[in-house]
Structures are given as structure tokens and as C-alpha cells.
Amino acid sequence: MTAILNPATEETIAEIAPASAEETDAAVARAKKAFPAWRAVAPGDRARLLRRLATLVEEHGEELARLESRNVGKPISGARGEVGMVAQVFHYYAGAVDKHFGETIPVAGGIDLTLREPLGVVGLIVPWNFPLNISSWKLGPALACGNTVVLKPAELTPLTALRLGELALEAGIPEGVVNILPGKGSVVGTRLVEHPDVAKIGFTGSTEVGQEVMRGAAGTIKRVTLELGGKSANVVFADADLEKAAAAAPYAVFDNAGQDCCARSRILVEASAYDRFAELLVEATRGVEVGDPEDDSTEMGPLVSAAHRETVASFVDGDPFFRGDAPDGKGFWYPATLVEARPEDRIARDEVFGPVAALIPFADEAEAIRIANDSDYGLSGSIWTENGGRALRVARAIDTGVLSINSNSSVRVSTPFGGFKRSGFGRELGMHGLAGYSELKNVYYATED
Ligand code: NAD
């Protein structure tokens, strides 16, 4: 059995039996058996089942948010927002079931049409930072397209995904369509990746494991969507509303205690505004409420585990530019930390995945773009300026999948989300998310006698 801890108290909140390779095979077999009937469900009926699941998530919202908060150590207010998004995702994909159209294409001698077919059994592998949210981003489109699924939550955080599996049954989704299988990446994960009856892997996690998934998928030419790490830039020009940018910047990196693939952990500031912005940023960071995740006013909780705290701490040498407060005693706490850095420093290049931000000055627009793009990653980012032309010019020039202007917002139910470069490929959410869970078939019908 594996003990599941509350990262804020180090107490065991559950014990889980991790699945074996044989149990993984059995889950895949169940999903394979359930596929023909599930793909044949009329679109309107499949939509109704997804909508019922969305409603059940809403009805159990507080329970799911409390469970997520205790298992991940995330503040309850954030967990409530995430569960709200989970319900929205299922509502959205319920609505998308009968709007995922094919085309007719003008050809000689007949009629040509395209069809969107489900893939079959899909393996969904999710990380520990947004366990329920990221599960829904994959389950919603996978089910909407008519696939059956085996979903593997992360070792540390399986509880809400397991509860979601129960709710899927309660919603009336037939047995075998949704299989939730907690277990190790090296056992359940690799088995799903290599399994000949799994048609696709939807993976969210680190770039290193993403590389293993790609290698493992090659054996069966499995489709993969990879949502991987990030090291995103928050680019602040001197002509920005500095107060607004500085007030927002801490939440772009310290939300979820920095355990966020979209964290804008490189704060690039135009040199002429650097001192003023740094002063405002320190003031705003001091205001981040750190403490008991179950308290409604808490904005930052602990890190997910002791081992992860050690990794985060290894990035910070000596005295940082600013270090906030964190509770003493039990719990995997780490304070909000600001470090002054050069673009070539490790802290400015590697994903920390903790509440540590690197402050980097730049001389002009060209240098800002150069530094922002000087990264193996390309997931998200922000641009702060009052000059609209510059905002769009810089947005075009930065190599990243998701960008926001005068905002930290990266994720919306209806808009595509995913990375450039080593942040992965494929898109989740919105109608683009459906492309990753269907095959395009072309049918030509000869009409000439
Ligand atoms: P991780 O890569 O260690 O694990 C992710 C999942 O993969 C877990 O379920 C794990 O058990 C499984 N896994 C591990 N080894 C495997 C293997 N060999 N084969 C198949 N599956 C395997 O990532 P993590 O530590 O859980 O999450 C943090 C990482 O996730 C960060 O790098 C973060 O940036 C990334 N992330 C990306 C996004 C995004 O949308 N781009 C979102 C959230 C997190």
C-alpha cells in the first residue's frame, strides 16, 4: 500500500494499492471491450451523459475541492476555482459532441467527405499539480469523441481522479468506458505507453518523462499529445502600468506554490523601470498570504512533498533578493523567493516548479525578445505594455504556445492550450482539443455511372 499524505500536515489521509502491470492490462482489456458500444452511443445521448457528469461535479464541488486541497496542499479558494473549471470542461465537451464537423471537398467524379473517428482506447497520464483539472482536460474531449480511457493519476495525488471515476459511473457512463488506475509511472505508465491496444497517450508532466513517452510510443506508432514543462517569461516594459503589472506578477509564479507549468518564473523588466518595479514587486510578494490551505484567505500553501522541497531549495544559493515567510513545523513549506539573475544562470533556464522567480533586466524590445526566446521551453508568458502595436509585435515574436497581454491568464475552457519547443505538442481545451482524440478519415464516393 502507498500512504497518501496531506503536504500541509504530513498526515496520512489515505492508503492506495498501486496497480500492477497485469491490472493495467486488465483495465485496457475492459476499455477495449467497452469501446464498440460507447462509440455507437448517439451523439445526443453521449452529450447528455457528459452533461450529467458536469452537474455531478458541480453538486460535489465542495467535497472535491476539499479533497484536492488536502491531497495537493493547494489553497481551498484555488481548488474551488479548479473544480469549477472541471465542471465547465465537461459542459463544454458535452456541447461539442455534435459540433465536431467533417467537411465536403470538391473533387471530380464523386463526392468527398471527411469523418472524425474515435481512436479506440486512450491512455491518459496526469501530473500531481492540477490532478483533477488536467484529468478533465483529457477526459472531456476523449469521451466526447467516443473513445474509452484508462487514466493514470500521479502517485502522490490519486484521490480526486478516483472520486471522479465514481461520479462518471453515477452519471450513467457505462462500466469500462472510464478506468482510473492509480500506480507508478514505471509500471502503469510504461505499460500504457507500450500497450498494443492503446491507440494514444495524452500525457502531461515533465519534459524528461515526455521524452520517455515518445520513445515508448514509437514501438506501436502510438499517437501522443505532450503537455510538458515551462520556463515562461513575464515581460514588463517601462511604458506598462507598473503598479498593475507588479501586483499581478507574484500570482503568475507563486500560485499553486509555483508548481504550475505556466508559471511566469522569469520576470524580464526594462532597465529604466527596473528599480521601481522591483520595489513594487517586493511589496506585492510580501502581501501573498501563506498558510493553512483550508483557510479561505490563504493564497499559497506548501510544496507537494519533502523530496520536491529539496529540489526547489537546491536552486537558491546564498541570500536571495527577497525571501517571504513560511510556517515552521510540519508541512513541506517553502517561502516565496525572488532572485536577481542573468539569462544564462541555472535559475533562469531550468524549471524550478516552486515559488522562486528570477528577475532579469533588459535594455530594449529586441533584447527582451531575445531573452524570452532563449529557452528550451515555450509554454506561456505575459507582456505588459500600454503600447498596443508593441504588445502584438512582441506577441508574434515570442515562441510560445500561450501568451497574455496585460494579464496572467493562460487557461480558458474554450481556447487552445499547449506548448512550442520542449514544452510539448498538441493542443488541449477548446475545439482544438478534439483533434487530439480523433482520427480524420477521408471517404470518396464515386457518383458517375
Ligand atoms: P512527471 O513527468 O514526473 O509525472 C507525470 C506523470 O507521468 C505521473 O503520473 C507519473 O507517474 C507518470 N510517469 C512517470 N514516469 C513515467 C514513464 N516512464 N512512463 C509513463 N508515465 C510516467 O511530472 P510531475 O512531477 O507529476 O509534474 C510536474 C511536471 O509536469 C512539470 O514539469 C510541469 O511543468 C509539467 N506540467 C505540464 C503541464 C502542461 O500542461 N504543459 C501542466 C502541468 C504540469
Description:
This protein has 449 residues and is α/β, with parallel strands linked by helices. It has 2 domains: 2-228 and 423-443, Aldehyde Dehydrogenase, Chain A, domain 1, CATH 3.40.605; 233-412, 3-Layer(aba) Sandwich (Aldehyde Dehydrogenase, Chain A, domain 2), CATH 3.40.309. Helix content is 39%, strand content 19%. It is built from 14 helices and 20 strands. The protein has helices at residues 21-40, 43-59, 61-72, 76-96, 131-144, 159-170, 185-194, 207-218, 242-253, 274-286, 306-313, 365-373, 388-397, 432-435; strands spanning 2-5, 12-16, 104-105, 110-118, 121-125, 148-152, 178-180, 200-204, 223-227, 233-236, 266-270, 322-323, 337-340, 356-362, 377-378, 381-384, 404-405, 420-421, 424-425, 438-446. The strands form 5 sheets. A 7-stranded mixed beta sheet has the order 12-13-14-11-10-16-17, with helices on both faces. A 6-stranded mixed beta sheet has the order 7-6-5-8-9-19, sandwiched between helices. It has a 3-stranded antiparallel beta sheet with strand order 3-4-20, with no helix packed on it. β3 (104-105) and β4 (110-118) form a beta hairpin. α2 (43-59) crosses α6 and α9 crosses α10. The chain is globular. The model has no long low-confidence stretch (mean pLDDT 98). Residues 125-130, 134, 152, 154-155, 185-186, 189-190, 193, 204-206, 209, 212-213, 227-230, 261, 351, 353, 379, 419, 423-424 line the site of nicotinamide-adenine-dinucleotide (NAD). The site of nicotinamide-adenine-dinucleotide has 32 residues, from α7 and α8.
